[in-house]
Amino acid sequence: MRRLILIFTVLTISWSVSSQQLILNSQYMLNQYEINPAVAGSSDGLPLAFTFRKLWAGLDGSPSIQTLTGHMEVAEHMGVGMRLFNVITGPLRRSGFEATYAYHLPLGAGDQKLAFGLSGLMYQYALDVQNLNLEDPSDPALLEAENMFVPDVNFGMYFYGPDYYVGLAVPQLLSMKIDLKTDKILEQRQVRHYFLHGGYNYRINEQFSIEPSTLLKFIEAGIFQADINVRGTYMDMVSLGLSYRTSDAVGIQLGYQKDGLRFGYAFDLTLSDIRTQSAGSHEIMLIYTLGNFLRKSGSDSE
User: Fold this and answer.
1) Percent of the chain, pLDDT > 70?
2) What DSSP string describes 24-54?
């Protein structure tokens, strides 16, 4: 047995959250750029979005995620975007920056578009040795751990119209190997994920609309997971949503928007065995949409 006692999160959360390396926010349908680079430039104005997510509250060392994104149209048919992210799981931290370019090709009369997006990422994996419970504090396997800077590329396609969208995103195209020089304890190769997402906003009348959406996740490690969501909105202001993530969680989402400001809260109730130790997952999202200072008018909104 190794002289190292890694805390629960390193072994069971950080490297294998439902066997997925990428942890997504629950309210991604409100900010689809987070999961698909081709969305960059598809909205009117410049939506700036901040999200904080805490998974499995009450469990020491459980993951927390902070993201800041923004994207806009910079020229006809062209969009750019940026994303800052920080994921902390116990003593492990993954933080970095993503920059995106997207091209939007009008189809037919122009109310439908097909977009292609490509992102370049640079992020750092870091291990905080001081936050480990070591049986032998002098164990060189962890004391000599190194931080690692990792480049990567994300690709996306996005077909959208005034009230609907379908997208495909493939993050972690380079499948980089992570090695923190811990005698293979924290060694892993990043694998490609495939996100297929879509939704339709159906207006029932002048006051009510309903938007069903779904996200299918395929991971090259042989994992499949599906999100099924439905969100109802009253007077384009107050919204209530429900979601189900297969073999993982059920959730409720509350939202309010007015004058370019949108607030969202999501609570996920875990269905896996970890539910006996967790009080569920919480997420807060704030989006403020600025005017596009480069273009007099934006393209079709999401």
Assistant:
1) 83
2) PPTTGGG-GGGT-GGGTT-SSSEEEEEEEEE
List of domains in the chain:
8-290 (2.40.160.40)
DSSP string, 117-133: EEEEEEEEEEE-GGGS-
Integer Cα distance of 156 and 218 in angstroms: 14
Residue 32: alpha-carbon gap to chain centroid: 8
Q: What is the pLDDT of residues 253-287, one digit of tens each?
A: 999 999 999 999 999 999 987 777 888 999 999 99
Q: Which two tokens stand for residue 78?
A: 């062209």
| Burial (CB count <10 Å: 0-12, 13-18, 19+), residue 5 | middle
The distance from CA 54 to its chain's CA centroid, rounded to whole angstroms, is 13
The residue-averaged pLDDT of 221-247 equals: 95
Q: What is the rounded distance in angstroms from the CA atom of residue 287 to the CA atom of residue 70?
A: 9
Nearest CA-CA partner of 284 in 39, 53, 48, 56: 53
Helix, strand, coil percentages (3-state) for the chain, rounded to 5, are 10, 55, 35
Q: CA 147, 156, 115: angle at the middle one, nearest 5? A: 140
The residue behind tokens 């995106």 is 100
3-state SS assignment for residue 207: coil
C-alpha triplet 46, 113, 232: angle, nearest 5°: 65
Give the single-character DSSP code of 302: -
0.85 exceeded by the pTM?
yes
| Maximum Cα–Cα distance across the chain | 68
pLDDT at 237 over 70: yes
The torsion of the CA quartet 45, 300, 69, 46, rounded to 10 degrees, works out to 0
Q: Check if the beta carbon of residue 299 is closer than 8 Å to that of residue 42.
A: yes
Distance between CA atoms of 58 and 279, rounded to whole angstroms? 6
- Nearest CA to 190 out of 206, 204, 176, 207 is that of 176
Q: Residue 148 and residue 189: Cα distance in Å, rounded?
A: 13
